[in-house]
Amino acid sequence: MATAPKIFPFVFLGLACIPAWGQPKSPQAVPQVNDASRAVPTGSDSAAQPIDPKSYMIGAEDVLHIEVFRDPDYTRSIPVRPDGKITLPLIGDIQAEGLTPERLAMSIKEALSQFENNPEVTISVLAVNSKSFNVAGKVNKVGRWPLATPIRVFDAIGLAGGFQDFADEKHVTIVRGTQRLTFNYKDYVKGKKEALEQNILIQNGDTVLVK
Questions:
Q1: Which range (5-9, 34-38, 49-53, 196-200) has the least confidence?
Q2: 99 or 52: whose pLDDT is higher?
Q3: What number of other Cβ atoms are within 10 A of residue 71's Cβ?
Q4: How high is the pLDDT of residue 49?
């Protein structure tokens, strides 16, 4: 028993010498890589943009929600066909493309009035597939965006998450068919008149290109 105090230091020393590989490892954090060039907006982005039922023009392949008060047979979500029409029970085909949601609701109400007394009809746009624009190049979210509401070049760049490092902010190009329009972002921020005039409304099919 007198030798016991001399053994303990060697036991502790032996434990301290156990190799690190024999001990459980804590999980290491995996580095996250953000590849902005692969970021593509989702369909939820169109819902984030409020659609004015009095001004938005419905197009082919848009998805509509038709609600007829207290009539589940007519309340449904339905896509606009490539021919610009939708089909409803009893009513049959009805033109949707080229009408505002408010005007289409009136058309459906008039048609339903043959079968119901003073029907209440509401139309909302669930997805905008007929009108869109692209943002490409050195921005943080490259992709195709729904043109649900009027938007200008400055706001389109903001919607795409702004510029990446070393982007040319003075020579943003708007590709519109055979046209090549320019926008000087830096001068716009400074309030220069020419740049303010360059901040044009985006049109269906435009591509905002940042080099």
A1: 34-38
A2: 99
A3: 14
A4: 61
Q: Is pTM beyond 0.85 here?
A: no
Beta carbons of 173 and 206 less than 8 angstroms apart: no
Does residue 104 contact residue 58 with C-beta atoms inside 8 Å?
yes
DSSP class per residue in 101-144: HHHHHHHHHHHHTTTSSS--EEEEEEE--S-EEEEEESBSS-EE
For the segment 89-108, what is each residue's pLDDT rounded down to a tens digit? 989 999 999 999 999 999 99
At 35, the amino acid letter reads D
Contacts for 65 with CB less than 8 Å, ≥ 6 apart:
76, 77, 78, 123, 124, 125, 126
The CA dihedral of 197, 203, 206, 208, to the nearest 10 degrees, is: 40
Residues 144, 200, single domain; the answer is yes
Residue type, position 59, single letter: G
Measured between alpha carbons, how far is 178 from 66 in angstroms, rounded to an integer? 39
Domain boundary among 101, 127, 153: 127
Mean pLDDT rounded to a whole number for the chain = 83
Provide the domain limits for residue 139.
132-210
Q: List 86's β-bridge partners, or say none.
A: 94
Residue with tokens 């003073």: 118
